[in-house]
């Protein structure tokens, strides 16, 4: 079961209020967000580093990958895709990176799904 999508976003603002607005906008695009961590990006304090997850709840790898690509396409046009990779018999991992997001305030996006648990 692909239970969640794990996301990492670099958000281009120093304001905590703007970060909260961008997170609300993100939630409207990709679904209910569970924040795992939110802190200033250590390499560039003018950005925030958000790690979060959204529910997926899809059993079949091909359906999960397609759904994730649809969501990623809402955030950016050019997505670099890694995988899907088969790690063991029925364990699949898939990830993508978008360095040119189209959503205001988002500087970079990484997404990953797997059915390891």
Descriptive overview:
There is one protein chain. With 117 residues, the chain is of the alpha+beta class. The chain is built from two helices and six strands. Strands 2-3-1-6-5-4 form a six-stranded antiparallel β-sheet. Strand 2 (34-41) and strand 3 form a beta hairpin. The mean pLDDT is 93.
Structural topology:
Layout: E1 2-11, H1 16-30, E2 34-41, E3 44-58, H2 61-75, E4 80-88, E5 91-98, E6 106-114
Antiparallel strand pairs: 1-3, 1-6, 2-3, 4-5, 5-6
Average the pLDDT over all residues and give the rounded result. 93
First and last CA, distance: 8 Å
Silhouette: elongated
Count of discrete alpha- or pi-helical segments spanning 4 or more residues: 2
Could you write a compact summary of the structure shown?
By secondary structure, the chain is α+β, with helices and mostly antiparallel strands. The chain has two helices and six strands; from the N terminus they run βαββαβββ.
């Amino acid at each position: 079961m692909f239970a969640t999508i794990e996301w990492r976003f670099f958000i281009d603002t120093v304001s905590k209020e703007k970060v909260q607005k961008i997170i609300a906008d993100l939630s409207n695009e990709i679904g209910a967000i569970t924040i795992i961590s939110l802190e200033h990006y250590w390499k560039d304090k003018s950005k925030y580093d958000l790690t979060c997850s959204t529910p997926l709840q899809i059993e079949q790898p091909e359906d999960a990958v397609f759904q994730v690509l649809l969501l990623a396409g809402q955030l950016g046009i050019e997505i670099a895709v890694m995988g899907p990779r088969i790690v063991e018999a029925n364990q699949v991992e898939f990830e993508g990176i978008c360095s040119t997001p189209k959503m205001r305030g988002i500087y970079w996006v990484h997404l990953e799904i797997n059915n390891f648990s």
